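$ run holo --ligand "NAI" --emit C-alpha cells
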Amino acid sequence: MNAHDGKVALVTGAASGIGYALCRELHARGATVHAADLNEAGLARLRQECGDRLVTTRLDVADEDAVRDWIERAAAERGRVDYLFNNAGIVVGGDFEAMDRAAWRKIIDINLWGVIHGSQHGYALMRRQGCGHIVNTASTAGVMPVARSTAYATTKHAVVGLSTSLREEGRAHGIRVSVVIPGLVDTNIFSTATNIGGHDYDAAIRKVPIGKISPQRAARAILAGVAANRQYIVFPAYNRLIVGLSRAFPGVMGWLINRAT
Ligand code: NAI
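-- output --
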C-alpha cells in the first residue's frame, strides 16, 4: 500500500508550478487533496486533470479568517488533516532603495503572513489531533543573501526561522514541521514577478548558469523529504552543495550570486 493512500493533504499555491505538481503527485499516490489558490483558472485545470478526491478553493493566504476556515472545513469534512503544505509565494525584485511600502507589504503579506496563518491554524488543528505534518516552502534565499531580492530573502529567512523553531515546539506533541529549500524550478514565478525600478527578474534568473528542474521532480523530492521527516528538504543535489557552501562561506556565496545575476 502507498504511504499516501487515504491521507488528507492541504496545499496552497496549488494552481501553478510546484503546488500544482504536488497536488497531482499526492492525488496519484491516493491522497485526498484540498487545493487552494487565488488563480481560479489554474484550479479548474487541476480539478479537470485529477477528478475525484480533489477539492479546490479560491483562497488568499494573506486573509487569516479565510485560511482558518479552509483548514477547519477540510478537517470537518475529512475527519483530520495529515499534511499542510504552505507553498504559495511570489517574488519581487529590484534595488532595495526602489522598493516602496506597498511592494514590501504585498510580499510580506503573502510569503510570510500566508505561512504564519497556515502554520498557526494548521498547528492548532494538529494539536487537537495529536499528529500532522506542516511543510513550509522557503527558498535558497532563506539561507543565503541574494542581492536585489532583499524583500524576498527577508520573507524566506523568516519562514526558515518559523519552521525550524516550530519543529522543536511541535516535537513533544507529535507534530512534524519541515522547511523546503528548492533550487531553481521551472515555474511561472519568475515571469510573473513584480519588478521594481526596471529590474527584470526573469532575465536575471536566466543568467544564472544552473538549469531548472521540473515541478514534478520538485514535488517528488518534497514528498521524499516529508516521508523521511527532514528538517530541511533541500534539492536538487547542486542546491545541497550551494547551501552547504553558503553556510561555510556566507560572504563569498553572496558575492558570487550578486555577480551572477
Ligand atoms: P508559481 O508562480 O508557479 O506558483 C505560485 C502559486 O501561488 C500561483 O499559483 C499563485 O497564484 C499562488 N499565489 C500567489 N499569491 C497567492 C495568495 N495571496 N494566495 C494564494 N495563492 C497565491 O511559483 P512556484 O515556483 O511554484 O512557487 C511555489 C513556492 O516555491 C513559492 O513559495 C516560491 O517562493 C518557492 N520557490 C520557488 C522556486 C523556483 O525556482 N520556482 C525556488 C525557490 C522557492
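-- notes --
The chain is about 50% helix and 15% strand.
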